[in-house]
Batch of 2 targets.
Target 1
Amino acid sequence: MKKTELMAKQILVTGGTGYIGSHTVVELQNQGFEVVIVDNLSNSQIEVLDNIEKITGIRPAFEQFDLAERDKTDGFFQKYSNVEAIIHFAAYKAVGESVDKPLEYYRNNLVSLMNLLESMKKYDVKHMVFSSSCTVYGQPETLPVTEQTPRQEAESPYGNTKAICEDIMRDFCKANEALNCIALRYFNPIGAHESTLIGELPVGVPNNLVPFITQTAAGLRKELSIFGDDYDTPDGTAIRDYINVVDLAKAHVVAIDRLLNDKTKQNYEYFNVGTGDGYSVMQLVKSFIKVTGVELNYKVVGRRTGDIEKIWADTSYGNAELGWKAEKTLDETLLSAWKWEKNVRGLS
Ligand code: NAD
Ligand code: WQD
């Protein structure tokens, strides 16, 4: 990618103060893109903008509103007429909460996407990258999963919003040949920026494994519960494909380049974004202890409802088409998560 090609392209990053969004804004700005963030701060803090500025030397433009509100979304596109592409991260993402509050999840995640798609047509914005998830595969029958692996019925309303959003985009692109959308199916994003200025900051008790580990190591939680050691895996604990968040952020820059420079093969495409390697919960815990040298209290408990046994990505199609590959090791990624946690908690 030539830097000059990328100057003056304005990219709308929805959910840009969130975990993956903030890392992506940094990578976009490092590549010379001009960014405008829209976020309603329902799951992130405004101070993230200061930290993006500290890392990149540039403060992105920022607008705070709810993308599920049609008139506000309209107002945004009237004000920002230079937006050429959208990266749409903004969504609710807590699987358990979505079971208790399905309508909130459907409204937020589906209506936001539909408002943006309508705006693309109305304001002539041709390109979108959408945050999908490996959750659309459920428990696949064969591993690793390729993009051709059939999707399965979602385990949760959250997961269902991702499948429905993919379908909405597919259908909308079919009806509108001038539009181009790419859905990226993330596997399990973990880790933090090497500066330790941005990272994952879950509200309340973390649901995800790595933030729970780092909070336990930092003394905020008494002990990590490992959910199940009776799975059909080498050590009995569940297997996932953990992708470094900076690697994941870079995949978005590559996807934007593909869209803006007309490299797409169809006007709706989707790619797995993982490392291609599966690690068990126990392997991850042991790696964390090894690379950080910290004590970690843990015990094995029963399986967590709704969890799948094992999944990891076949990344060959995405690697070949996008010219992108995850680079960071699990060890360095876990270390980055720990450095971030220590920084947030003021630990040395
Ligand atoms: P996050 O919660 O940190 O970021 C999402 C951001 O969107 C937040 O800052 C939130 O305030 C904002 N937001 C939510 N609804 C909004 C609305 N209606 N209007 C404006 N802003 C809104 O989440 P994340 O981990 O960075 O995830 C980003 C995207 O990636 C989400 O779509 C998520 O579903 C998807 N995803 C995440 C993971 C993961 O494990 N983190 C895995 C697969 C897919
Ligand atoms: C990983 C492994 C747990 C916490 C979720 C969403 C999915 C996607 C990514 C957005 C599992 C085990 C966890 C703990 C544990 N998000 N674990 N003790 O479940 O793969 O996926 O995030 O799209 O949709 O469902 O990620 O980090 O919660 O769990 O033993 O305290 O760690 O059982 O095997 P998961 P996770």
Note: Confidence is low (pLDDT under 50) at residues 1-7.
Target 2
Amino acid sequence: MTIHKFDIVIFGGGIAGLWTLARLRQAGYRVALFERRAIGGIQSIASQGIIHGGTKYALTGKLTGSAMVIGAMPGIWRAALAGTGEIDLSGVRVLAEYQHLWSTGTLASGMAGFFAGKVMQGRMQTLPRDAYTAPFDSPDFRGSLYRLDEPVLDPRSLAEVFYTAYGTHCHPLEELPKFEHLSRGWRLQLPDGDSIETASLVLTAGKGNAGLLTALGQDSPHMQVRPLNMLMLRGRLPLVHAHCLGASANPRLTVTSYPMEDGRVVWYLGGQVAEEGVRREPAEQIAAGRAELAALLPWVDFRGVEWATLAVDRAEIATPGGRRPDDAFVAAHDDVFTCWPTKLAFAPRVADLVMSGLRERGIAPSSGRPAFERRTALPLARLPWEEVTQWS
Ligand code: FAD
């Protein structure tokens, strides 16, 4: 029986765990990350890959808490993507350098567009008609188009870049270990008889944090789950990365696109249609998606396009009334950091909060190399449309 010593053990290999792993390794900490399924996470791989800067939260015309905290995130990501930031993401595939916002021309969405433009000056630009791209370059499009300075990333290549750099610190976890709280730190009894001693645990397991907290004997913090029923369609479609402005703070529709090797394009649809469709069966949700596209882009020909759905939960810190949290959440209790980023874009903030929490607790990088051999390689998570077995 061997005792492996670490400074930090992370549970969960989505974006929150991966970014935190990268920062901790760079700072010299001895870290191991355990993942139950695949590197790239569940929500992270299912995300639309948008590095939000808060514009969509400002659509009501005032800067909410969300809009202010998240405003700094695109800059941190852009530096990382350029290879000049706190971590090197220069190998990540950027699907779009910017997105579009479009208003349909109805009064409500026109107003939202006006306010969003005022509030988010500098990050948004009203486009002249001769700069419109497909499908907005049609004479049938009567709304306005804005350019929004927020990139869209390929979540699969994001996972891959982290795994290439830090994969040797990532280990599969088939079964939860038995946890024992020591006077300082934790002992983890592994199923194979070995054990791990660590000064700190970091929970970045998304929805899995709830089960981990129970296994650790902690009854807080509480988690909330907000479901989505996303839509996917594939066919000969233009590459579109755009939000359609509705009357509320949430976009009516968010479209991101993914080019496939055979020349077809997948459109991945979120926004209100995904939030409101959570109780719909796949066929009903597809019918709702078709109706929404017919209403918003009536001149686009969707014949021959195939459809599928993805039901997926967002896991977050519980809030009064179950509303969306404004910020990333990190709380420390008994040498355990519980983290929910709330957004992919907030991953750097999770890592920052963990790093400063460790410093406050006097947990410094220890010397020595971790002697922990990787027994099995973890797979990389697959994109939602790669998982679909039947399109309709
Ligand atoms: P996850 O990505 O869910 O990763 C958690 C990992 O923990 C998983 O790999 C899981 O297998 C593992 N795990 C679970 N239990 C255990 C355990 N016991 N032990 C070890 N491992 C465990 N945010 C944006 O900023 N932009 C967007 O465009 C965007 N689009 C989204 C679209 C959808 C459909 C969804 C659902 C979310 C979207 N979000 C977006 C939010 C964003 O994806 C999430 O906030 C973020 O990815 C959460 O990352 P995470 O690492 O905490 O969780």
Note: The chain has two domains: 3-44+157-222+320-386, 55-153+225-317.
